[in-house]
Amino acid sequence: MKRKMIVVSAAIAAAFALPGCAPAGYGQDGATDSADYGAEPAANAVAATPGATASPDATAGAEAEGEDDSDAPELSEDEVTSELTAASVKKMGETVQNQDGFVLYRFDKDKTKPEVVSNCKGDCEKIWPAALINKGETPKLEGVDAKLVGTVEREDGSLQLTLDKWPLYTYIGDKEPGQWKGQNVASAWFVITPEGKKNLTCLPPPSKAVAPPAEEEEEEPTADATSGPADADAGSDYSY
Predict the structure, then answer these.
(1) Is residue 4 part of a domain?
(2) First vs last Cα of the chain: how many Å apart?
């Protein structure tokens, strides 16, 4: 047991020691050069299966657990995650990306046993949008095993895609395709691999999530002598 702990500690230390693993300003709004997060030329992490879609059996597990998604809202084309693609990203390696090239994440506070549960709700889901799909639809897969793809019903009845039972999310802090600023946010969010595992190739120090988008009807906060600029330290109070 002691030997295993030493090996694991060494692996984590090696991840931190990787040159350039955590670019300056990591996790802070607008403080990081986007080049540090750019996707490399197409290099699928798993042998691609062009045109493949998730097997009908892939979603059977969620429905068999007593889900009633008859009231699931109909999503527009822009709201649907229509593709899951395995791709290699600079400094991170294996990722799964949606049809727009944005990296997908998994959340440690979600549950996969005894049933799949997404615990990202409220402001959390504004920061970490769920990868959704309409009932009866399946995403196009490249480099992702259809047997690992499923769905879980969220509180509003919408269906969220899962990979090896882990619900999938994007991160609003990623402003460009291929970015992975959500890695190790709150020590709970991690880039997901095509196998549904955490990608720990690059593990920067834990950071806090960006603030959720302001509601349109809300008045913009006013800076004063005591509070400082309205946008100062944005997101510092958000731990999810």
Answers:
(1) no
(2) 32
Show the domain range for 78.
39-191
Which tokens belong to 206?
Answer: 């834990």
In 1-75 the beta strands, taken as DSSP E runs, fall at 52-53
Let me know if residue 221 belongs to a domain.
Answer: no
Domain count across the chain? 1
CB 191 within 8 A of CB 163: no
Please report whether residue 15 resides in a domain.
no
Whether residue 102 contacts residue 174, with contact meaning beta carbons closer than 8 Å, is answered with yes
**Confidence class for position 2, pLDDT limits 50, 70, 90:** low
Q: Which residue has the higher pLDDT, 53 or 11?
A: 53
Residues in the chain: 240
pLDDT, one tens digit per residue, over 207-240 is 999 999 887 654 554 443 333 333 333 444 466 6
Q: Is 178 part of any domain?
A: yes
Two tokens at 40?
């490399």
CB 199 within 8 Å of CB 193: yes
Name the phi and psi angles at 22, rounded to 5: -115, 95
Buried-state track 199-235, b at ≥16 Cβ within 10 A, e below 16: bbbbbbeebbbbbbeeeeeeeeeeeeeeeeeeeeeeb
- Look up tokens 């549904």; give the residue: 196
Q: Which helix (H) or strand (E) holds 167?
A: strand 166-167
3 pLDDT more than 60: no
Q: How far apart are CA 165 and CA 142, in angstroms?
A: 18
